[in-house]
Amino acid sequence: MSQRTLTIVKPDAIAKGVAGQIIARFEQAGFRILAAKLIHMTHEQAADFYAVHKSRPFFRSLCAFMTQGPCLAMVLEADDAIARLRELMGATDPAKAAPGTIRKDFASSIEANAVHGSDSAESAAFEIPYFFNGLEILPR
Ligand code: ATP
Ligand code: MG
């Protein structure tokens, strides 16, 4: 069934100049791009986005990383988009990511790991409207 997910090309990947290559991976895998926006998040915006991690030891560092430069938020659509994007991204830690995944090829560390992807339908339902209003998302 067709499903939507939220991805973020993170600040490390934008700074490295590999956003285009990452977008190409999404396109080659058959995702349709329904919305895209460059945003340089404030600390508060990053903290609210990653609120589920607020008690984790890496939370402050994660928020600092996500606000160090602009990132590219996108809404992607495909059959089984949430699970398929997570597979295409690879493991959180690039050292553990499978060959051919985005994180294996473009991530620098477990923190600066190039991309975000919603991890469940509930997450996508929070994350998509966090960045995009209805008028900014193509109907198909
Ligand atoms: P994302 O939510 O960004 O798609 P994920 O679902 O693979 O990544 P989470 O466990 O949700 O991983 O962690 C969110 C983000 O926090 C990671 O992508 C990474 O940037 C950072 N992070 C996770 N674990 C660590 C860690 N042990 N040390 C430093 N940063 C971490
Ligand atoms: Mg996550």
Sequence-ordered SSE layout with sheet pairings:
Elements: E1 2-9, H1 11-16, H2 19-28, E2 32-39, H3 43-49, H4 59-66, E3 71-79, H5 81-89, H6 102-106, E4 115-117, H7 121-131
Antiparallel strand pairs: 1-3, 1-4, 2-3
This protein binds adenosine-5'-triphosphate and magnesium ion.
Adenosine-5'-triphosphate (ATP) is lined by residues 53, 58, 62, 92, 110-111, 113, 116-117, 119.
Describe this structure in words.
With 140 residues, this protein is an alpha+beta fold. The chain has a single domain (2-136), classed as Nucleoside diphosphate kinase-like domain (Alpha-Beta Plaits, 2-Layer Sandwich), CATH 3.30.70. 40% of the residues lie in helices and 20% in strands. The protein is built from seven helices and four strands, in the order βααβααβααβα. It has helices at 11-16, 19-28, 43-49, 59-66, 81-89, 102-106, 121-131; strands spanning 2-9, 32-39, 71-79, 115-117. The protein has a four-stranded antiparallel beta sheet, with helices on both faces. The longest helix is centred in the last third of the chain and has 11 residues, at 121-131. The radius of gyration is 14 Å and the shape is globular. 33% of the residues are buried. Bound molecules: adenosine-5'-triphosphate and magnesium ion. Adenosine-5'-triphosphate (ATP) is lined by residues 53, 58, 62, 92, 110-111, 113, 116-117, 119.
